[in-house]
Design brief:
The protein is α+β, with helices and mostly antiparallel strands and 349 residues long. It is built from 8 helices and 14 strands. The longest helix has 20 residues. The protein binds (3R)-3-hydroxy-3-methyl-5-(phosphonooxy)pentanoic acid (PMV). (3R)-3-hydroxy-3-methyl-5-(phosphonooxy)pentanoic acid (PMV) binds next to helix 2 and helix 4.
Length: 349
């Protein structure tokens, strides 16, 4: 990340003559190969295990944030995809801004305008890109010259997966045990491997149970402990497959963890069932295309019904064409590995 500003570590206490501080940041979402599901500490957002993802170039959030002068406004004003958020909808974002205000020792309220370039209910994690962009914009606008590692810990508190969107390419979030250790790091830059993520959208409906609530249910599943115990080996396999750009090695591991995570979801109390009939149609189809026709594509699924298919450039057209023949696929979004959050000169307001 690039900022030429001087670090102050703290916002000025009173600077009425100074113009309000503003920053605009674009952050990519990410797709997890080994999932974050289940929290050890819900307050700090400490996960049960490490997770590994690819940051997406073509699914991102752009956020402009302006810190107002002290006393200028009593509340934060947040607009998301053109819609001003009411108090209830803004609550999670305001809590995150409160955290940043606490760290920076400021009382200033913010004006925030945020825009996703993908539909919110597309199965692409808007919380990952959204909290990454919000964190970086808020900290840049306060002249806090923090490292990406430190910013990843701050973003983690808003949404766990956002910690991984602080880095480009292929990223691992270390489980850790506090803010200094539960941070993300880059495994490989975006140009290490031209892997494609094709998101097959089968439903645009908003999910009934948020992942924030879902993480707290994981421990109630009898399968959770088994999944957690198996992940050390799976993480090792994914690191090796990524280092070697070996899709035939990566694919089976990511499919198994997606199924293991959904098995935990389905067997938690209460049970979470995110799948739709179309989800299963795509899983069956991809297995068939692979076995019968040699198409090298593998699936993963986040906390929703839509299916992400990972493949290399040579198979993109075939996978896209085949997905297009399935009745349940409403839309396909294609993305490659993307960069770390970028600070933009052009603001949204
Ligand atoms: O960051 P959250 O709280 O939205 O959780 C993300 C959970 C999954 O997307 C299902 C998995 C992951 O690691 O991204």
């Amino acid at each position: 990340m690039n900022t030429s500003r001087q670090a102050t570590g703290k916002a000025p206490e009173k600077a009425p003559e100074k113009a309000p501080e503003k920053a605009t940041v674009r952050a990519g979402s990410n797709i997890a190969f080994i999932k974050y599901w289940g929290v050890d500490d819900a307050t700090l957002n400490l996960p049960q295990t490490n997770s590994i993802s690819m940051t997406l170039a073509d699914a991102y959030t752009t956020t402009t944030l302006e810190w107002l002068e002290e006393g200028q406004a009593a509340t934060d004003a947040i607009t998301l995809d053109g819609v001003p958020l009411d108090e209830r909808k803004a609550a999670r974002l305001v809590r995150h801004l409160d955290r940043i205000r606490g760290l920076a020792a400021t009382e200033r309220r913010a004006r925030v305008v945020s825009q996703n370039n993908f539909p919110m209910a597309s199965g692409i994690a808007s919380s990952a890109s959204g909290f990454a962009a919000l964190t970086v914009a808020a900290c840049h606008a306060l002249d806090l010259n923090w490292s990406a590692t430190r910013l990843s810990a701050v973003a983690r508190r808003g949404s766990g997966s956002a910690s991984r969107s602080l880095f480009g390419g292929f990223v691992e979030w270390e489980r850790g045990h506090d803010d200094a250790t539960s941070v993300a790091r880059q495994l490989h830059p975006p140009d290490h491997w031209q892997l494609y993520d094709l998101v097959a959208v089968v439903s645009g409906a908003e999910k009934a149970v948020s992942s924030e609530q879902g993480h707290q249910l994981a421990a109630s599943s009898p399968l959770n402990a088994g999944r957690v115990a198996s992940l050390e080996q799976a993480l090792h396999e994914v690191r090796t497959a990524l280092a070697e750009c070996d899709l035939r090695r990566l694919g089976p591991v990511i499919e198994q963890d997606a199924l293991a995570m959904h098995a935990v979801m389905m067997t938690s109390r209460p049970s979470l069932l995110y799948w739709q009939p179309g989800t299963l149609e795509i899983i069956q189809a991809i297995r068939h295309w692979r076995e019968q026709d040699g198409v090298q594509a593998y699936f993963t699924i986040d906390a929703g019904p839509n299916v992400h298919l990972l493949c290399e450039a040579v198979d993109v057209a075939a996978v896209q064409a085949r997905l297009g023949t399935l009745a349940s696929v409403q839309q396909i979004i294609v993305s490659q590995p993307g960069p770390a959050p970028l600070q933009l000169d052009e603001h949204l307001f």
